[in-house]
Amino acid sequence: MTVVSARDIRKTYHSKITGLPIRALQGASVQVERGEIFGILGPNGAGKTTLLNCLSLLLYPDEGDIELFGENVRRSDGNLRARLNLSSGNANFPWCMTVREILRFYGMLYGLFGKDLSRRVEELIGLLELGAFRDRRFDELSTGTKQRLALAKALLNRPELLFLDEPTIGLDPDVSIKIRAFIRKINREEGITVLLTTHYMVEAEQLAGRIAFLHSGKILALGTPAELKKEVRAQNMEEVFLRLSRGGEEEA
Fold first, then answer.
1. Radius of gyration (C-alpha) of the chain in whole angstroms
2. Which fold has domain 2-91+159-251?
3. pTM > 0.90
4. Most buried of 20, 37, 91, 185, CB within 10 angstroms?
5. pLDDT by residue (tens digit) across 66-111?
6. So where are the chain's domains?
């Protein structure tokens, strides 16, 4: 089953300084199947976060169509949001709230109360190894712990579709390895479809079955890591990244 179908997505902003248009997305199209880990790879400023925000219903595109679970988002009755969630690499929660308070707060926003809420919060605290930090304030947490908290928050409503925006940005290698292992675990054991953005080639290759390479708001290539290497005659994903980036700059 196709979980995400986006066709010819376009989104333009206007610079707050110059007032000139910034074309963040210029006809991007992607299709993600149920149970897949799908990666969006590209340099900084490529439009990855804008595309993810459109697909996760935080933004509406100026042009183009998006369907989630076969339903057009513009004609949805609002029930789609309950089936998905988003975690950003730049986790930001109220500084004075503890880990447990943050999870309970968002759990209630997602419709969990009483024993169901307590059970789910404790389950995720255990799953993300947050037990030692449950009563720590957000401003007392390390970057890696903040990332794990953001993931826990995104799993509270048991989403079928999980969007991850740069899930390991700024993390030490050992923490990044744990986060990637956890993403594979929930995909494999719970069947959660994952759509993630990254500019780390290793992360894209290790996690994603298929990768879309985005540059200047356009999808320049799409396929498995092996297919992308073959397409641009590269030995590794670093070469894929460099060659596609150069091609995107020439096209732009």
1. 18
2. Rossmann fold (3.40.50)
3. yes
4. 37
5. 999 999 998 887 789 999 999 998 889 999 999 999 999 999 999 9
6. 2-91+159-251
